[in-house]
UniProtKB/TrEMBL annotation:
It comes from the Eukaryota. This is Pseudouridine synthase RsuA/RluA-like domain-containing protein. Residues 1-24 have a biased composition (Low complexity). The chain crosses the membrane at residues 37-55, 75-96, 108-126, 148-174, 195-214, 226-257, 290-309, 329-350, 722-740, 752-772, 784-806, 826-852, 873-905, 911-936, 969-992, 1004-1026. Residues 1-26, 360-385, 1037-1062 are annotated as: Disordered. Keywords: Membrane, Transmembrane, Transmembrane helix. The keyword RNA-binding does not apply. Residues 1046-1062 have a biased composition (Basic and acidic residues).
């Protein structure tokens, strides 16, 4: 155990530098974007360009009558090729920082550097080395011996071409190999390799004819020489065959990547057609996109590489002849695209565009070499002890096959008497105490050698290091993840053997008779001990030959040296494994023995979010099962500080550490991911095909579903109809209005300005077209779409604004518009007035959009962003524009009257008033713009501060990712608004100057043109960002034949069989409406009453609402025999309900309460409140108190209905999820009311409709629909009846889901709902509900409209994640960040929420 930066050194290093090798994101901000490698590439390319810039070649006078001139095209070609080499160099620089990730990325980086050098040398290849007109900078003239240099450079280029070609093909071959291994499919990898080596052989053989030709040239006997002719023919033949092999290999590679893409595309379609979960489809689409990009990159590279050889030859032959300009341009493009294509290909093949930079080790961790494995038995134990050696060999033979492990999980574990296994809650220690020990108590042996292991014990191939505090299901999943590199049964992996101490160690001589701390997570009672006849061995000094837990080191050495055993490290989610002394000792010993180690994590986010918690680990602070075990481990370590330092190296070493190894997600693993998804997709195809026949037939007929808009015909996805319409309109306007000559020739600058402004208007039109398809998402996106259309029209009219309508006739006329001498002046003046009007309308329109953002930002963040100030300035501008109509009317009057004196007075007053009012309005516009920019800047600054605080406090990676995303969005919106407002402010003076300066001032007119062009584009970008539509999918029309129906006026909905004059009925309805509970009371019940129930422990993740009713609400109110809301436990007493909650009793009670809290917290989903409710309930209550929401009242039937006159005396089906026993019934003296016809005035469950009507008409009550994860709420008759009644009563309805993915994954299961097939607590309840429905088919149709209507349906309403909600997300994160205040409570819950 003498293996494995001292903690003090690492700590000081971290404190000094602010960085850590465990979390590379914690480096200095200025280092993150420091482009040192890119700067080096730029310097080298710029130096090469200056040193090699083409100049005129010098030849003797008798060669040319006129000295040769280096053509301009050669200089342009040289510069273009140098630019392409700069692009290739930037890719090489990008890969250099990621080369440390793996050997493969180093190989890709080497190719990128070779390609960069080849591209730079290629810039000299457009001229003939013999008779070219140019010389390249410092290279000598051809007459001064430079010809040798040019030929040498040509040979270097050829050599680099061959090397790069072989290098690229090895990269492609490695991809095809891994693609075959991971997918178990044939992708012609061996064929490609044969062709690759055939090219290498051809390149080697071709050296013989080349040597023969060189020999003949040197001896000056090449003309007519047989050797020369033979060598030339051989060179052409061998080179041609080699080139054919190159082409064939390229075709094989392109076809192979195309095959993988096609298979993934087929699997994606199958997954979509068979309702695969959204996460699976997302992974498939991502893999398909990556496979397509790699195939495209490889194709691009190979095609241009194949064309490069003839391009080089032709360029040498014809480059200096002016008659081949077009061909020379083609050859130049081939060379340029070859360099860029190879760079893009190696970037995609390496996968480094998805990888983070690999940072150098920041700490002072000591570099150490793994020592040779030595016998690691405790030195106090004799090496000659035969019993010891026999026990070690016996332990090494106690591996279990995967078949046996799965059999234990499927058969033995669920069948344990008096104990029910809960996968999410029970740890490995619970399984040992309640399953492994009881099953083996009769034999008193390890499970692996008991009769329950039908395959018998095997020699271990893999040793699993794990934490007994980890979930047992996670442990088994980690083992399966190691085996599922291939499919288990098909690939024979079921016989792989794993050594797991829980199964391999005989617990009956270790721990079975004592249990000081292992408790059941639900009952909180100690697990029972075993009553077998064995004796637990107490090994205080680690010398006992009978004990098994002191021989792990020797057993690992035996397995490593004789069987090539490897180690799987099954890490739990909190990474507590690295704080367990036994686990760390096993990891260190495996490293010392040079065993292959494989880390198995829940997810990459687990490592990224918690890696920094592993810094400065100290073995002295680690935990063990007992102090004796810890002393035994520490006794084997000679130098604890050195061990701690080497442990940091083992975990964080940037090359070979466990973290670096797991993080090496290079392109091989990316391609492996592609193959893995192909394998899983093909394996799962049979399961998908066995789905319900109705869903299959419907999908096959329509090809799409209203529940999942992503399933639509592929050709519709990119159909650019709206963009095509914009293009046609802009092109038609350009042709009809193209500037023509006036009395004077129309200057070229006017035509260019017109064309440029038309192009900018086309960009604005494309944004408008983009927003049109997303306008149905919400009213706000419609408003944004309207502004985009106005901006587009204004931009098209602005293209006519560079010419003065009064005296511009000297220059240009615009197409079909009449000449100014023919009455066209009125047209131009009218167009100018239209532009002014559109400017005013668009300016007000934009400001209303900004005002709505600031309003929502204030509401969602509870902060002041000067929304009121902005609105006052906005309305001041409207008032100014209205008042400005008076002086404009005066000016029109003065132009029409003939009284000179009166006209002069009116004109003067009008001009003064117009200038004053216009100036004040413009100042208000500027002030409003400044307020808006400062407000968005304030939100960005606050989010930036919260981000820094979250990073400093080591918030989980998901929380930091959400904060960065929100910060980026806030910054983009602020930037877009600033861009649009600034150019809009400059537009007025730009218009004035464009009219006043028709002649001269060319530079000023260019500035004015740019202002107008950027104003149109800036406004388009601003509205796009403000609408948030760039993050939204297109809104599809309703696909089904659902009936469109209008909501009827609310009428009294009491059961028609009940008398309206029944006073008792009315009194009961009013009484029910007064049984709301405040949030404070609900949280008090959750925090105080629920945990204190005797003989029953509440489990938030498992217990449903029905369990809470049976085991908490009914027992607590049994003495009073009343509803909980009117009992003494509700200290605030019943209240009039403000919100009615519709929920499913089969839903988790914690999720129900989280949905209620999400409504108070203004959250769309309740996953975050659910996490906070379990971990930080007091924090949540304080936050609600600060928001003033604890007094909000909610009507929840479980609390509002008196269960003692409803269900308390009978329980036909409600069972405890752990014991599987029926919940006990109540022993109170009340009588359950049996209301068979729904007429009973005493019953409370038949009056929901009337109560809802009373609340809706008198108190403005709204409805919250707390939907469970499987969406079973929509299959419960009572819940659907409440939703339909609330819709009929026009109550505001709010859907609360666990997450958006819940809806996306399961929305299609809600199609074709039929109320006749829905479930209820009893058949009588169902009959009562159906009896209220006059036409069931019409009800079903309207139910589909209620759920799926694309404008007002529940799904459409919840899915309307437009920019108002996006800005709300920004404000929400600001609110949560300020509430967290660096405590980390919110971000810890955010991690689970994501």
């Amino acid at each position: 155990m003498t293996i494995l930066s001292s903690s003090s050194e690492a700590s000081s290093e971290t404190s000094e530098t602010g960085t850590s090798s465990g979390d590379p994101s914690g480096r200095k901000p200025w280092c993150r974007w420091l482009p040192r490698s890119y700067l080096l590439v730029l310097v080298i390319n710029a130096t090469a360009t200056l040193l090699l810039w083409p100049a005129e070649a010098q030849y003797p006078d008798w060669w040319y009558n006129v000295p040769p001139v280096c053509p301009l095209k050669m200089r342009l070609f040289f510069f273009g090729l140098m630019l392409s080499s700069l692009g290739a160099g930037c890719v090489a620089a990008f890969l250099v920082r990621r080369a440390e990730a793996s050997g493969h990325t180093k190989w890709a980086c080497g190719y990128a550097i070779i390609n960069w050098i080849q591209a730079m040398l290629g810039s000299l290849g457009m001229d003939n080395p013999d008779t070219g007109n140019c010389r390249y900078g410092v290279i000598p003239d051809r007459v001064s011996g430079g010809k040798i240099w040019y030929w040498a450079l040509a040979l270097c280029r050829l050599l680099l071409y061959l090397v790069a070609s072989f290098w690229m093909q090895t990269l492609i071959a490695s991809r095809l190999d891994l693609l075959e291994q991971s997918s178990n499919r044939n992708y012609r990898s061996s064929c490609f390799r044969k062709l690759m080596w055939a090219q290498v052989f051809g390149a080697a053989v071709v050296l013989l004819p080349i040597a023969g030709m060189i020999h003949e040239i040197i001896t000056d006997s090449c003309i007519g020489s047989i050797i020369f002719v033979t060598s030339t023919i051989s060179l052409i033949a061998i080179g041609g065959i080699t080139l054919l092999c190159n082409w064939a290999a390229s075709i094989v590679a392109i076809c192979s990547f195309g095959k993988s893409y096609s298979e993934l595309r087929k699997i994606c379609r199958l997954a979509e057609a068979n309702e695969a979960p959204i996460s699976a489809r997302s992974s498939l689409r991502r893999a398909r996109r990556f496979a397509g990009l790699q195939g495209l990159g490889v194709s691009f590279s190979l095609v241009f590489t194949v064309l490069l050889v003839p391009a080089r030859v032709v360029s040498i032959a014809v480059a200096n002849y002016d008659s081949y300009d077009a061909l020379t341009v083609v050859l130049f493009l081939i060379q340029a695209f070859d360099a860029l294509g190879n760079a893009v290909a190696v970037l995609l093949l390496s996968g480094s565009h998805r990888m983070a930079k690999v940072e150098r080790s920041q700490g002072s961790h000591r570099s150490w070499k793994v020592e040779k494995a030595e016998h690691s038995r405790n030195q106090q134990t004799s090496h000659e002890d035969v019993n010891w050696t026999r026990k070690v060999e016996e332990l090494s033979m106690r591996g279990m096959t995967l078949r046996s492990l799965l059999q234990f999980y499927q058969e033995n574990l669920p069948s344990m008497p008096d104990w029910k296994y809960a996968p999410r809650e029970h740890k490995t220690r619970d399984v040992v105490r309640r399953a492994i020990i009881p099953l083996t108590s009769r034999e008193e042996c390890a499970f692996s050698v008991s009769v329950f292991n039908k395959d018998g014990p095997k020699r271990a191939q893999v040793m699993v290091t794990h934490n007994w505090g980890n979930s047992f299901s996670d442990l088994l999943a980690a083992v399966l993840s190691d085996a599922l590199q291939d499919l288990l049964a098909k690939m024979g992996r079921l016989d792989h053997t794993y050594w797991i101490c829980a199964f391999a160690v005989n617990q009956h001589i270790s721990i079975c008779h004592s249990n000081p701390y292992d408790r059941d997570p639900f009952t909180n009672q100690l697990h029972p001990v075993c009553h077998c006849n064995s004796t637990n061995i107490i090994d205080s000094d680690g010398r006992s030959a009978s004990s098994e837990i002191n021989k792990f080191d020797d057993m690992m050495r035996l397995l490593a040296t004789t069987g090539g055993c490897r180690q799987v490290i099954a890490v739990d989610k909190p990474l507590d494994l690295f704080r367990r002394a036994w686990c760390v000792a096993e990891i260190a010993e495996a490293k010392r023995l040079q065993m292959d180690q494989s880390l198995k994590l829940w997810s990459k986010a687990t490592l990224q979010g918690r890696a920094r918690t592993l810094e400065n680990l100290d073995v002295r602070d680690m935990r063990a099962s007992s102090e004796k075990d810890k002393e035994l481990i520490l006794g084997k370590i000679q130098d604890v500080d050195d061990f701690n330092a080497k442990l940091q190296v083992l975990i964080f070493d940037p090359k070979s550490g466990l973290v670096a190894t797991w993080n090496a997600m290079d392109s091989l693993q990316q391609i492996g991911e592609v193959g893995r998804l192909i394998r899983w997709g093909l394996a799962d195809a049979g399961c998908w095909s066995n789905r319900e026949a109705e869903a299959s037939s419907e999908t096959s007929e329509t090809g799409q579903s209203s529940g999942d808009p992503s399933v639509r015909k592929p050709w519709c996805r990119w159909l650019p109809r709206s963009y095509l319409l914009v293009l046609v309109i802009n092109a038609t306007a350009t042709l009809l209005l193209w500037p023509a000559d006036g009395l004077d020739p129309c200057p070229l600058k006017m035509r260019l300005s017109f064309f440029g402004l038309m192009l900018s208007s086309f960009g604005a039109g494309c944004v408008a077209a983009f927003l049109v398809r997303r306008a149905e998402a919400s009213g706000h996106t419609k408003w944004a779409c309207g502004y985009a259309i106005i901006n587009w029209i204004q931009a098209m009219l602005g293209s006519l604004g560079m010419n003065n309508p009064l005296w511009g006739y000297w220059q240009c006329t615009y197409g079909v518009i009449p000449d100014r001498d023919s009455g066209g002046k009125i047209w131009y003046s009218a167009l100018a007035c239209c532009r002014l009007l559109l400017y005013l309308v668009a300016s007000f329109w934009m400001q209303t959009l900004i005002a709505s953002r600031l309003d929502l930002l204030e509401q969602s963040s509870n902060r002041n962003y000067r929304s009121g100030c902005f609105r006052r300035l906005m309305w001041a501008q409207v008032f100014g524009a209205a008042v400005a109509l008076l002086p404009i009317a005066c000016l029109l009057f003065c132009f029409s009257v003939f009284f000179v004196f009166l006209s002069a007075i009116v004109c003067t007053a009008g001009w003064i008033s117009l200038i004053a009012i216009g100036g004040i309005t413009l100042l208000c516009n500027w002030a409003a713009s400044i307020v808006a920019i400062c407000s968005f800047r304030k939100s960005y600054s606050e989010l930036r501060r919260i981000c820094r605080l979250a990073e400093a406090n080591e918030a989980p990676i998901s929380a930091r990712s959400s904060l960065r995303r929100a910060r980026r969005f806030a910054g983009l919106q602020g930037l877009g608004v600033s861009f649009g407002l600034v150019f809009t402010l400059l537009l007025v003076p730009a218009r004035v100057f464009s009219m006043l300066l028709p002649y001269g001032y060319d530079s000023l007119q260019v500035v004015l043109f740019l202002i107008q062009a950027f104003d149109a584009l800036g406004n388009a970008v601003a509205v796009l960002l403000l609408s948030g539509s760039h993050r939204m999918a297109k809104v599809e029309s309703s696909q089904g034949s659902q009936c469109g129906s209008k909501v009827e006026k609310p009428e009294h909905s009491r059961n028609q069989q009940t008398s309206h004059e029944d006073v008792n009925w009315t009194r009961k309805v009013e009484e029910l409406s007064m049984r709301g509970m405040t949030l404070r009371s609900l949280l008090q019940f959750y925090q105080e009453n629920l945990p204190s129930m005797p003989d029953w422990k509440y489990a938030p993740r498992e217990h449903k609402t029905r369990d809470v009713v049976r085991r908490a609400i009914i027992p607590l109110t049994s003495s009073e025999e009343c509803a909980f809301s009117v009992s003494a436990f509700n200290k605030e007493g019943p209240k009039r309900a403000q919100v009615m909650v519709t929920h499913n009793w089969g839903n988790s009670f914690s999720d129900l309460l989280a949905a209620v809290l999400s409504d108070a917290l203004q959250e769309c989903s309740f996953s975050l409140p659910a996490e906070l409710l379990q971990e930080e309930c007091a924090f949540l209550q304080d936050l609600l108190a600060k928001m003033g929401r604890l007094d909000d009242t909610y009507w929840i039937c479980a609390f509002a209905v008196n269960q003692h006159i409803s269900i308390c005396h009978s329980n036909p089906y409600d069972r405890d999820p752990f014991t599987n026993q029926l919940h006990p019934v109540c022993q109170c003296n009340s009588t359950n009311i049996i209301d068979s016809d729904g007429r009973s005035a005493s019953s409370e469950i038949n009056k929901f409709d009337d109560m809802m009507h009373l609340l809706a008409t008198t108190g403005g009550c709204r409805q919250v629909i707390a939907v469970d994860k499987p969406l079973d709420l929509f299959r419960r008759a009572w819940c659907v009846a409440e939703i339909a009644e609330a819709k009929r009563l026009q109550m505001d309805q709010s859907l609360k889901l666990w997450s958006k993915a819940t809806l996306q994954e399961r929305a299609r299961t809600l199609e074709n709902l039929d109320v006749r097939d829905m479930r209820a607590s009893s058949d009588k309840d169902k009959e009562l509900i159906l009896g209220k429905i006059q036409d069931v088919d019409d009800f079903n149709a309207k139910l589909q409209v209620l759920i799926f209507d694309p404008k007002s349906g529940l799904v459409a309403t919840w899915n309307a994640m437009d920019s108002l909600q996006q800005i709300g997300e920004v404000g929400r994160l600001i609110r949560w960040g300020l509430a967290d205040a660096g405590s980390g409570k919110v971000w810890k819950a955010w991690d689970g929420h994501n």
